[in-house]
Amino acid sequence: MLDATAKLNFLREGVKRYPDARETVDYFQTSVLEAIFAAFEARSNWNHFEPRRTQGSLESGKFVGSPDRYIQAWIAGALPTSSAKAWLSLGLYWKPPRQPSLSVVAACHVSVDKGIAIPLADVPTRTERIRLGPLFRRSESRLFVDATEDFDPAEAFALLLEAADEALAVAAPDGGERISLNQ
């Protein structure tokens, strides 16, 4: 087993070499998913998303797309302004079509029943490292950070979850006009 520094270096190298490194794919995918679930578990001070737990564990799932496209996981929950079930997804995405200058991003988005994405608000207090925009469809709204040479998955995922929670404060659960819960 790798120590924390070696694992971080492995993840950084994997971000660059993942599509061509088939012999390490399973370990890399597992390491990325572990980092995502660790970020979900570490976040305890949600303001605008209420994670659901089943038998003490987060209600969650994971999905790995074609080997050179994405690794993501999600947690189920609800928005305080709505009783509808919501899913907060977090993952790594390679070569997002709507951001052609970026080769790899860590990103976050929220959706409700039937896969309807909730438009996340552009909150002025968000850190400059995190951007808001589309990755795959022109109409989508995702928070994302470029996976640069000094990419730290744990840090990036924690920042994305914090930014998503803030952005949900002014997002409409039905995908309609954005509302403010802090008025």
Protein model, in words:
The model is unreliable at 172-183 (pLDDT under 50). The chain is built from three helices and ten strands, in the order ααββββββββββα. The longest helix has 18 residues, at 25-42. It has helices at 4-17, 25-42, 153-168; strands at 50-51, 53-54, 57-58, 60-64, 70-78, 85-94, 104-112, 116-117, 131-133, 142-146. The chain has one domain (4-168). It is globular and about 45 Å long. Helix 2 (25-42) packs across helix 3. Helices cover 26% and strands 27% of the residues. The chain has 183 residues and is α+β, with helices and mostly antiparallel strands. The strands form two sheets. Strands 1, 4, 5, 6, 7, 8, 9 and 10 form an eight-stranded antiparallel sheet that branches. The termini are far apart. Strand 9 and strand 10 form a beta hairpin.
Structural class of the secondary structure composition? alpha+beta
Strand tally, please? Answer: 10
Gap from first CA to last CA: 50 Å
Please give the count of helices: 3
Strand content: 25-35%
How would you name the oligomeric state of the polypeptide chains in this document?
A: single chain
Helix content: 25-40%
Q: For the CA atoms, what is the radius of gyration?
A: 16 Å
Mean pLDDT: 85
- Order of secondary-structure elements: HHEEEEEEEEEEH
- The low-confidence runs, each spanning 5 or more residues with pLDDT under 50, are 172-183
Gross morphology is globular
Number of domains: 1
Biggest beta sheet summary: 8 strands, antiparallel
